[in-house]
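Before relying on records like the one below, remember that each one covers exactly one chain. Contacts with other chains, cofactors or solvent are not represented anywhere in the record.
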Amino acid sequence: MDRMRSLCRNVTGPLALLVVVCLLGGAAACQTTKGFGRDIENLGDNIEDAAEDAD
């Protein structure tokens, strides 16, 4: 039983750090994806405007 408690104590710190890093990475990825979506939308608007000007 003491071995199990010791193992849990040794694993808890690194596991908590891993969870925090994953959450922060996920938040950063969401912002990057949001910005990429805006860039694609702007590109589409520019292409649409160019096509309308060509008519």
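DSSP finds one helix and no strands in the chain.
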